[in-house]
Structures are given as structure tokens and as C-alpha cells.
Amino acid sequence: PDEALNYAPVAGLPALREAWRKKDLRDNPSLADKPMSLPIVTNGLTHALSLVADLFCDAGDALLLPDKIWGNYRLTFCTRRGAEIVSYPFYGEKGGFNLAAFKGALAKVCAEKKKVVVLLNFPNNPTGYTPTKSEARAIADVLIAAAQGGANIVALTDDAYYSLFYEDDAATESLFSLIAGAHERLLAIKGDAATKEVFVWGLRVGFLAFSVGGAPADSPLYTALEKKVNGA
Q: Which residues 6+ apart lie within 8 Å of 69 measured at CB?
């Protein structure tokens, strides 16, 4: 009764947050030596996306998305917050992720804006596509290079369908693991949820985690981000 009836902390039950971090580290071994905040519990992954929009999107900000997206991104980031979508073709001419289009669209936005929000959703809704290991590494390299070039990047990975991999060469770690702690101008945000990963559709339990280059796991930056999320 004490757990079921009392108010939980705003950021979620500590034991649940620790358990989800252990799961993230088990699923993404590359995160083991990278800084990462303790995941914050949200009311499903859609709520996590909404919180990111509230914290990091102002009217006129650029939101980089492919032309194959879950439609609620428009409602969450554009209708609610006034972000402007910059789109690029998802598939290349020979199939696979269109890295050249992604790189070109990001470079164009970075030349015009001081900040860009990049949303990466794999396995992708609605296509189901997951990048290969080499594609995932290349996507991460493009984001890191943009940060090194002076752009401020907010890179959000929507991992709603994480673990649904069916190809031998599919990247089985979240893109978050490749960009976490990579650069001080690159804010990596991981949005995920128990909903589909562990098949509990009715529970509506999602998570948000942050990582920034140059900010170790015990950095006060993550405490500040947690307080901002709590306030939102």
C-alpha cells in the first residue's frame, strides 16, 4: 500500500529508475564508459517527447526529420511549440538510410540556425527500418562533426520500438550510445519506454535520459536538467 497509494517522486521511483538504467546498459554495452543521467520516469514515451519539446523547442526552431515519420511529431513539436520541420528523403536511391540527404539537410540548417533539434526514430515508425551498423556509425559521425563545426545540436532518439530487430546487420544498440558524451555542443537525449520493449502497453511508463560531452555522470548539469524536467 505504501508504494501503490502514496505520491511517487516527480522523477519516478528511484528503484525503477535504477532498474531501467541497468537495462539500458545491458542492451547498449557501448554506454558503459559514457556519462549518462539517471533515467527520469514519464507517462509513456509520448509524454517524454512532449517534455523535450517544452524544454528545447521555441517558435521558429528547426526540427530535422525524414519524410517517413509518426504524425504526432507535428502535433508535439510544431502545433504545440512552433518548431519548423526540415525534411529529407528517408530512403536512398538504392535503398537503405539516405545518409547523404540527412547530412545535406543538417548542414543547411546549421548554416542558418544557431540550434537544431534532430529527431531519430529507429526502428522507424512507420517503415520499420533499422540502420545497419555502418549506417548508425555514419549518422553519429555526421552529428558529431556538426557539433565540432560549432552547431548546437539537440539529438533525440525515439527508441519506442527498440529490440524489434530482424536483420543480421541491423544496429542493435540505440544511436544514443554512439552520440552520448561525444561533444559539449551535442546534447544527446534518449526517449524510451517499457510499452513495447517489454510488452506492457497499458502501463504508460516511459523514460528520459541525457548525456553531454564534457559532463561526467555526477555533473550538476544533469541535476539541473532533472529539475527542469520535474518542473515541466
A: 121, 125, 126
The string of pLDDT tens digits covering residues 132-183 is 999 999 999 999 999 999 999 999 999 999 988 888 889 999 999 999 999 9
pTM of the model: 0.96
Residue 140 neighbours by CB under 8 Å, 6+ apart:
175, 178, 179, 182
Q: Cα–Cα distances in Å, from 70 out to 17, 29, 179?
A: 27, 28, 23
Considering only the C-alpha atoms of the chain, give the largest distance between any 2 of them, rounded to a whole number of Å.
Answer: 58
In our burial notation (b when 16+ CB lie closer than 10 A, e otherwise), range 48-70 reads: bbbbbbbbbbeeebbbbbbebbb
Angle of helix 133-148 relative to helix 99-112, nearest 10 degrees?
20
3-class DSSP assignment, residue 210? strand
Length of the chain: 232
163 CB-side CA count, 13 A: 13
